[in-house]
UniProtKB/TrEMBL annotation:
Transmembrane segments: none annotated. SUPFAM superfamilies: HD-domain/PDEase-like. SMART domains: HDc. This is HD/PDEase domain-containing protein. Residues 22-140 form the HD/PDEase domain. It holds the Pfam family HD. CDD domains: HDc. The lineage of its organism: Bacteria, Bacillati, Bacillota, Bacilli, Lactobacillales.
Length: 220
């Protein structure tokens, strides 16, 4: 089977599962992550393109935020990849990448095993979509969906968090999410290509936060 045919099948598989998400993990997020990863692939040599781009498409389809049963979703994905003529090694690598790349996983120290270069690129591409102007919009969209306050100067950001803390939104504010996660991502990029893009996006977020607080305080 041609690589392009395999990628088209992966795209269809993902689209069918992610179309109606309302928490910022919809198919539009996937498209941006795929675009990001292609940009990174052009600068970082040595990665397997089919595995990288497929993992970018598939990175959220077995996530516990989106599916009831992670094991069943993983089995379904495994069968699909085998039917689509991915080799055993490619299937194993894709599954390992998507099981280990998320920010919430890293909070419990589960990310100790280093990702292969393909996984590092997908993780960078996903993190790039959480920062900058898109990152600001996604945080507000997510926070609105889950009933977070916009901001409360009385509530301090949680500096150290476990995965359970991260998912506990009872005392969360959208602005605090920047200090708890988004501003930290720039220094956690794996590749130089992503670090470079992240530097500009970090400025966008810092400027937004400065302006937000000035306007909150009534400063013109
Ligand atoms: P991951 O799949 O890496 O664990 P998340 O589900 O934590 O990612 O994040 C998905 C999107 O929702 C990101 O853009 C993230 O910044 C945003 N988000 C996650 N938690 C919050 C929160 N408490 N408040 C606002 N936005 C959030
Ligand atoms: Ni993602």
């Amino acid at each position: 089977m041609e690589t392009d045919t395999q990628l088209a099948a992966v795209q269809q598989f993902t689209k069918a599962r992610m179309a109606d998400d309302e928490t910022g993990h919809g198919y539009d997020h996937i498209q941006r992550v795929v675009n990001n990863v292609k940009q990174l692939l052009a600068k970082e040599t040595g990665a397997d393109q089919l595995v990288t781009i497929s993992a970018a498409y598939l990175h959220d389809v077995t996530d516990d935020k989106l599916v009831e049963d992670v094991n069943a979703a993983t089995d379904e994905l495994t069968n699909f990849l085998k039917e689509t003529h991915f080799s055993e090694d490619q299937v194993a690598e894709i599954l390992e990448i998507i099981a280990n790349m998320s920010f919430s996983k890293s909070l419990n120290g589960q990310n100790a095993k280093p990702l292969p270069i393909e996984g590092q690129l997908v993780q960078d591409a996903d993190r790039l979509d959480a920062i900058g102007a898109i990152g600001i919009a996604r945080a507000i969209y997510f926070g609105g969906h889950f009933g977070e306050k916009l901001y409360d100067p009385e509530i301090a950001p949680r500096v150290e968090m476990t995965k359970a803390d991260y998912r506990d939104l009872s005392n969360e504010t959208i602005i605090n999410h920047f200090y708890e996660k988004l501003l930290k991502l720039k220094d956690r990029m794996n590749t130089n290509a992503a670090k470079e893009i992240a530097t500009g996006r970090q400025k966008t977020m810092l400027e937004f936060l400065d302006n937000f607080k000035d306007e909150w305080d009534g400063i013109q």
